[in-house]
Amino acid sequence: xxxxxxxxxxVVEALKSRRRxxxxxxxxxxxxxxxxxxxxxxxxxxxxxxxxELARGGVHQGVVARAEPYPYSGLEEIVAAPEPLVLxxxxxxxxxxxxxxxRAADGAGASGVVIPKDRAVGVTAAAVKASxxxxxxxxxxxxxxxxxxxxxxxxxxxWVYAAEVGGTPHTGLDLSGPVALVxxxxxxxxxxxxxxxxxxxxxxxxxxxxxxxxVAVAAAVLLYEARRQRGxx
Length: 233
Prior knowledge:
With 233 residues, this protein is an alpha/beta fold.
């Protein structure tokens, strides 16, 4: 089974990370960064029309790669990290939002991201592209039951907070230790059953007319506050 990765940065990051085997790169541009990152992976010069065909409408910048399926991690692997900083996403269905969350998670040095198998998007080619290749460096666990996953995270000694309006402001909550942050889909938010499993709630105060941030922006704000409390870098 193979997957297509499209876009210059996603392909280069997949080649650099070596987390999944890249079988070949099809390049219509001759970009040097692709060949430098390729190592022993074959790079074939092809017409742009061939790249268009494989990318199926994605913004590919003239480069696609054939690769093994995305390598999901186990939940235990993520919570076993020293002082884990985990994101749990409940029902995010837009691959662009997931990709942006993964980019923020990589930038903030998160231990990993947990997503459900059902009623949520996985790490698709579109999500990889939206992450600018950060998906190839971030551990993502895909679980059958998100509430049970929250319980297992807590059993590992991690405090779990749901992001919701009315929660403790993020700068007033202790995020310096092992923490998991649960963010829901836009509109619905965190589901009741998942929320009931959390230790508390956290919010990002809003000063304007709208009451919440895009999930990826909220994730970035919360992750970087947790990183600030832990000391930089």
